Amino acid sequence: MRTPAHGPVLDAVTTAARRYLDSLPDRPVFPVVTPAEVRRAVVDELTVDGLPAEQVVAELDRAVEPFVAAHGSGRYFGFVIGGTHPAAWGADLLVSTWDQNAALYAPTPGVAVVEEIAARWLVELLNLPPQTSVGFVTGGQMANLTCLAAARGHVLRESGWDVEADGLPGAPRVNVLVKADGHSTVPRALRLLGLGMRNVLEVACDDEHRIDVVSLRETLQPLQGPTIICTEAGNINTGAFDPFEEIADLADAHRAAGHPTWTHVDGAIGLLAAASEAHRVLTRGLARLDSWSTDGHKLLNTPYDLGVAMTRHPAAHRAAMSVQASYLIQGGEDIRDPMDWNPEFSRRARGVVVYAVLRSLGRAGLARMIDRLADLARRFADQLRASDGCTVLNEVAFNQVLVRWVPPDDRDADRFNDQVMAAIQADATAFVSGTTWRGQRYMRLSVADQATDEQDVDRCVVAMLRCADEVRGAEA
Ligand SMILES: *Cc1c(COP(=O)(O)O)cnc(C)c1O
User: Fold this and answer.
1) Distance 293 CA to ligand 1 centre (A)
2) Residue to mutate (ligand 1; options 266, 300, 447; most atoms within 8 A of CB)
3) Distance 214 CA to ligand 1 centre (A)
4) Protein residue with least CA distance to atom 12, ligand 1
5) What's the pLDDT tens digit per position in 204-255?
6) If you write DSSP's letter for every residue of 115-184 in order, what string do you get?
7) Ligand 1 atom 3, closest CA
8) Position 410 confidence tier, pLDDT thresholds 50, 70, 90
9) Which DSSP state fits 19?
10) Going by CA atoms, what residue is nearest to atom 6 of ligand 1?
11) DSSP string across 174-235
């Protein structure tokens, strides 16, 4: 028998992974480092003869691990970065180990069926229409792209134009409505789809950055022909959800007036609220809309990279994504070819990871995880509000907290907020990131890691207040 080559590598990986994971609760959450320091640490020597695999893995661990940000520590609240559920992590290792090309059912029936089950579970858990089609993609960006590609094809087909066959030149103009200051992945998707940005219509939002229904009605009213409306479940700054019921009413009326209409929901942050009894109220009317995107690597706590594109129009979804080629073995009775539902061709079986995390949590466990993230965000907000060193700007209906630090005197408040955030990052107990919202600088907290607990929040609040005090004192 041939000696398997994987033994020593597996040992090197296990040792490195265990040491890293064990360090998470206490390690600094972020390495304060310059690019030059990282470059010095990483061996930049491509030799002629190379190195044994286990040596490369051990060397990477040694050189790079000190510069890894502790996203999974429970104390990382920057951007919107989820942690990793242990079942998802384990399944992800298996997916890498099996190394399946999960483009089609034929070469890999096992993972294709697991993805089919994961897709069905998601549709059920989110209370979406039973016919909803699902594509597992690399993230929210590609989920938005996939859904909007289906939207583009659908509204144009209903206007007598086959965009998949004839392209955009000569096509009826598609009206696209987006939120003012919506997430940047939506304009990028529109750009990639040839819909451009110059003709996009902006809809005004209220103080929580929810679509203003009056503005939406007035924007829609004069429009003729195919129309796409882009909405959000979980705004990047406030975590707010758009009023889907009212939006669905307006979309239905516009459609009834003879204009093909599709409403998309960017739910990268908040779509999972629909799986929780306590937070479902935020998503009222959601299932009446046409497409929904979400992220696995945010609140669902799968490893990177994982997004989900869902539509209530499987034919439009498939028409936008599927490819035919003579050398492929496609379709057949009762078969789901993953490639029909996502823009990737060769791809890893990332849906298996969704299966694993849902199977491990169960229905109630998933709801508990979502509720807990929102509870911890409220705990942050309550403690920060009580401190009188800062104000909390948003309602904290879900997992995002928008904070403005109050300077001690007539100092520049924007500059003071940036200084406090820099001090918090340097302190490395917690990681936070900033945002510019309505022309002012804010600190934004995003609670998205199942590893976060009450102690983490309390400890991080103490550190944040201490950092703010130090910045106040430093310039007083
Ligand atoms: C993160 C995010 C995206 C993009 O998702 P990626 O997974 O980073 O591609 C889109 N929309 C919103 C609201 C987000 O928060």
Assistant:
1) 9
2) 266
3) 27
4) 268
5) 999 999 999 999 999 999 999 999 999 999 999 999 999 999 999 999 999 9
6) HHHHHHHHHHHTT--TT-EEEEESSHHHHHHHHHHHHHHHHHHTTT--HHHH-STTPPPPEEEEETT--T
7) 140
8) confident
9) H
10) 140
11) PEEEEETT--THHHHHHHHTT--STTPEEEPB-TTSPBPHHHHHHHHTT--S-EEEEEEBS-
Distances (CA, A) of 352 to 91, 118, 267: 7, 7, 21
Q: Looking at beta carbons, which pairs linking 96-100 to residues 24 or more positions away fall under 8 Å?
A: 96/348, 98/349, 100/348, 100/349
> How far away, in angstroms, is 280 Cα from ligand 1 center?
21
Name the residue with tokens 């990282």.
38
Cα–chain-centroid distance for residue 459? Answer: 26
Ligand 1 centroid from CA 295, angstroms: 7
How far does the centroid of ligand 1 lie from the alpha carbon of residue 136, in Å? 14
Per-residue pLDDT at 110: 96
Q: What is the DSSP letter of 2?
A: P
Give, rounded to a whole angstrom, the gap between the first and last alpha carbons of the chain.
Answer: 74
Q: Which residues of 108-144 are buried (b: 16+ CB within 10 A; e: fewer)?
A: beebbebbbbbbebbbebbebeeebbbbbbbbbbbbb
In ligand 1, the atom with minimum distance to the C-alpha of 182 is 13
Distance 249 CA to ligand 1 centre (A): 26
Q: Which two tokens stand for residue 209?
A: 């950055």
How far apart CA 32 and CA 372 sit, in angstroms, is: 30
Q: Ligand 1 — pocket residues by CB below 6 A?
A: 80, 139-141, 183, 185, 232, 236, 266, 268-269, 295, 307
Per-residue pLDDT averaged across 62-84, rounded? 95
Give the DSSP H/E element, type plus range, for residue 402. strand 400-405
